[in-house]
Design brief:
The protein is α/β, with parallel strands linked by helices. The chain folds into 3 domains: about 5-95, NAD(P)-binding Rossmann-like Domain (Rossmann fold), CATH 3.40.50.720; about 110-280, 3-Layer(aba) Sandwich (UDP-N-acetylmuramoyl-L-alanine:D-glutamate ligase), CATH 3.40.1190.10; about 295-430, Mur ligase, C-terminal domain (Protein-Tyrosine Phosphatase, Chain A, Alpha-Beta Complex). The chain is built from 15 helices and 18 strands. The protein has a 7-stranded mixed beta sheet, sandwiched between helices. α6 crosses α7. It starts with 7 loop residues before the first strand and ends with a helix.
C-alpha cells in the first residue's frame, strides 16, 4: 500500500511508545487518525492530547470505524484480539505497527538507530542535529522529545530518522540507507530464545544496508564488530568518549550520553552536516521525556524519571546521577519490566544497583505480553541484597518512597512501566 494514498488510520494500541509516535507523524501529514487502548495511564497520553488525536479506552468490536483506509495494530495484539478480529472480519486493511512504519521509512532515505540501549536518545539527537542544520527530516522516536514537538516530526525532505526496535524482529521490515548500531546486549528473552538468536536479528538487518549506504558503530565493541562483518557498505567506527578531542558539550550527564552524541554526530557528518554544526546543536539538546528527566523536587529531594529497564541501562543511569550529583544519596525506585526479562537477567540486575544507597522494587510490570510468571518483586529485591526491599504497587511505592527519601537525596524512578507515575506523584504531593 502507498502510504501517501492513506487518508484515515485507526490504531489499536495507540498509547504505545511507537504507535503514538506513528499516530503523531500521520496526523502531522494530514491523515485522520484515531485509535483505542486500555484504560491504563501511559506517558504518551499527553502527546496524543496535545496533538488532538482522539482515542477510546477499553477494547470493543464496536470501536472499529465502519470505514477507514488502514488499521494499524500494536505488535502486542494478534489476530484473535477483539478489535483486530473485527477489522479482519469486515475486510479492512490491517497491518502491524512495523509494517506501517516501513511504508514511510522505506519510501525515503531512511536512517535507522538500532541496538539494545540508547536508541531513543541517539535518534532524538540525530533528529535535532538535522533539524538545527536545516535538513528538515521526518523523525519517529520511542519517546516524547519536546524540541521536536513530541514523539515524531513530519519533515519535507526525503530523510527519515527512525528509532528501530528489534523486538519481535521488527527490523526485518525496514530497508535502511544508513544505520547507527548503538550496541548489542541480550534482551527480550520472551521472543529471542538465546543471545545468538537476538544478535542474528541485527546481523540480518545490517546485511540489508546498500553498498552506497553507511553503518556507524563504536570502537572496541566486539558485538558491534561481529555484526558489522555482515555489512557491504561504508563503516564508520566512532572513537571511545575518552579518546574524543573534548569539544563536545552536553546538557545530559553520563558517559553513555556522550557515546550516543558522538554516534549521532558521525551519522550527521555522512549526511553533510559539519561536526561543528552538530556539536553546536547538541550543546542545546535538552533530551527526551523519561530519559534522565528531572521531574522536579519534593521535600528537598530531586526526582528523576528514566526508562532504564535493562541492567546495563540501570547501571549507566545510576552512574550518570553520581556524575551530576556527586555528593548526594541516591534512592532508586525500580519497576522490573516483564517476568521473562527479570528471570533471564536476574544475576546482572543483582549487580546493577551497586551504586545506589537504597532500592525500592515495585511489583513486576508484565505489560500486554505477560500477566505472571516465575519471580516476585520480593525475590528480586532479595537478589539485589543490600538496602533493597519490595515496595508493592504504585500507591504503596509512593508512600514508601516518601518515607525513604531525605532532603538532598536524588530519587531515580527507573523502568518501562508505571515508575513515571511514582515520580510525578512525589513531586505533586498527590497519589
Amino acid at each position: 500500500m502507498d502510504m501517501t494514498a492513506v487518508r484515515s488510520v485507526y490504531c489499536i494500541g495507540i498509547k504505545g511508545a511507537g504507535m503514538s509516535a506513528l499516530a503523531q507523524l500521520l496526523h502531522a501529514r494530514g491523515v485522520l487518525v484515531s485509535g483505542s487502548d486500555t484504560a491504563e495511564h501511559y506517558f504518551t497520553q499527553e502527546t496524543l492530547a496535545a496533538n488532538g488525536i482522539p482515542y477510546v479506552e477499553e477494547f470493543h468490536a464496536d470501536h472499529v470505524p465502519t470505514t477507514v483506509d488502514l488499521v494499524v495494530r500494536s505488535s502486542a495484539y494478534d489476530d484473535t484480539h477483539v478489535e483486530v478480529a473485527e477489522a479482519l472480519r469486515r475486510g479492512l486493511h490491517v497491518v502491524t505497527y512495523a509494517e506501517a512504519v516501513a511504508m514511510l521509512f522505506n519510501a525515503g532515505r531512511g536512517i535507522a538507530i538500532c541496538g539494545t540501549h540508547g536508541k531513543t536518545t541517539t535518534t532524538a539527537m540525530l533528529g535535532w542535529i538535522l533539524v538545527s542544520a536545516g535538513r528538515d527530516p521526518s523523525v519517529i522516536v520511542g519517546g516524547a522529545v519536546p524540541q521536536l514537538g513530541g514523539a515524531a516530526r513530519a519533515g519535507a525532505s526525503d530523510l527519515v530518522v527512525l528509532e528501530a526496535d528489534e523486538y519481535q524482529d521488527k527490523l526485518q521490515h525496514y530497508a535502511p540507507y544508513g544505520v547507527i548500531l548503538t550496541n548489542i546486549e541480550y534482551d527480550h528473552p520472551d521472543f529471542f530464545a538465546t543471545p545468538s538468536a537476538y544478535a542474528a536479528a541485527f546481523h540480518r538487518f545490517i546485511a540489508r544496508i546498500p553498498t552506497d549506504g553507511f553503518l556507524v558503530i563504536h570502537e572496541r565493541d566486539a558485538e558491534a564488530e561481529a555484526a558489522a562483518s555482515a555489512a557491504r557498505c561504508r563503516i564508520i567506527r566512532v572513537p571511545a568518549v575518552e579518546d574524543d578531542p573534548g569539544a563536545l558539550v552536553l546538557l545530559l550527564p553520563g558517559a553513555h550520553n556522550r557515546r550516543n552524541a558522538l554516534a549521532a554526530t558521525a551519522a550527521a557528518e555522512i549526511l553533510g552536516v559539519s561536526r561543528a554544526t552538530a556539536f553546536a546543536a547538541l550543546a542545546t539538546f535538552r533530551g527526551s521525556k523519561r530519559r534522565f528527566e528531572i521531574v522536579g523536587e519534593a521535600h528537598g529531594a530531586v526526582i528523576v524519571d528514566d526508562y532504564a529497564h535493562h541492567p546495563t541501562e540501570v547501571r549507566a543511569t545510576i552512574a550518570a546521577a553520581r556524575e551530576r550529583f556527586p555528593d548526594r544519596r541516591i534512592v532508586v525506585v525500580f519497576q522490573p519490566h516483564t517476568f521473562t526479562r527479570t528471570i533471564a537477567l536476574r544475576d546482572d540486575f543483582a549487580r546493577a544497583f551497586d551504586g545506589a544507597d537504597q532500592v525500592l522494587v515495585m511489583d513486576i510490570f508484565g505489560s500486554a505480553r505477560e500477566t505472571q510468571g516465575g519471580i516476585s518483586s520480593a525475590e528480586f529485591a532479595t537478589a539485589i541484597g543490600r538496602n533493597a526491599t519490595a515496595s508493592g504497587d504504585v500507591d504503596a511505592t509512593i508512600a514508601g518512597a516518601r518515607s525513604a527519601m531525605l532532603p538532598g537525596d536524588v530519587v531515580l524512578c527507573l523502568g518501562a512501566g508505571r515508575n513515571d507515575a511514582v515520580a510525578r506523584a512525589l513531586v505533586s504531593g498527590v497519589s
